[in-house]
Design a protein that fits this description.
- This protein is an alpha+beta fold.
- Helix content is 36%, strand content 22%.
- It has helices spanning 9-13, 40-45, 50-55, 57-63, 76-85; strands at residues 5-6, 20-25, 31-37, 68-73.
- It has a 4-stranded antiparallel β-sheet with strand order 1-4-2-3.
- It is globular, with a radius of gyration of 12 Å.
Length: 95
């Protein structure tokens, strides 16, 4: 996937079970989070899981702002490197 896509369950279902980098955007298409995952589809689906919000209250706040997403499939070592290279840290990246 090489474009910013609406954050819907239908679109997420089309994501592969592959490792890589993902970015989340608000309705103005401003990046609000960037992360990596061994299984991108599962990670993106986790933003819809209600029970996960109890363990991760920030995830609920973030979910309310997500309008679009972007994924790039790649080996985890490369994905982590790119994640750390993001020049302006998005709003919900605390590291």
């Amino acid at each position: 996937m090489t474009k910013i896509t609406r954050f819907t369950k239908k679109e997420i279902a089309g994501i592969g079970n592959k490792p890589g980098l993902y970015a989340l955007f608000n309705r103005n298409q401003t990046m609000i989070y960037v992360g990596t995952s061994e299984v991108l589809r599962h990670r993106l689906q986790s933003y819809y899981q209600q029970d996960d919000f109890n363990a991760h209250p920030t995830k609920q706040e973030l979910r309310e702002k997500i309008a679009y997403f972007y994924v790039e499939y790649m080996p985890m070592a490369r994905a982590r490197k790119l994640e750390s290279d993001v020049k302006c840290k998005p709003e919900y990246n605390f590291r």
